[in-house]
Amino acid sequence: MFQSLLAKLSGSSNGEKCWQLIEQGARVIDVRSPEEFASGHLPQAINVPLPTLDQWLHQVENKQHPFVLYCGAGIRAQKGCDILRANGFECVVNGGSLKDLVCCQPNP
């Protein structure tokens, strides 16, 4: 299921498909600064600022688990995806901006 959704996603992703991945258990990573994160973030997100991503990735046990990354505009999220892929992570998706994900968040 993850693979079929991931196959449809490239670059900055369609928010609805990102939410499908999140609802299916993808981990959500906010790569913005701690200050940006403190000003508002998705409740399920963890904050791993882009400059610290290289250190954080060594703590991840399952590199096959899906991850959705987001930031302020999608550029840092794409850089984060590139870093993770270069380190053996197979299921990483650029969710784009926080604003984009919030706008298309499904109703509970």
Automatic annotation (TrEMBL):
It comes from Shewanella oneidensis (strain ATCC 700550 / JCM 31522 / CIP 106686 / LMG 19005 / NCIMB 14063 / MR-1). InterPro entries: Rhodanese-like_dom (IPR001763), Rhodanese-like_dom_sf (IPR036873), Thiosulfate_ST/Rhodanese-like (IPR052367). This is Cytoplasmic rhodanese domain protein. Residues 22-96 form the Rhodanese domain. SUPFAM superfamilies: Rhodanese/Cell cycle control phosphatase (SSF52821). It comes from the Bacteria. Pfam families: Rhodanese.
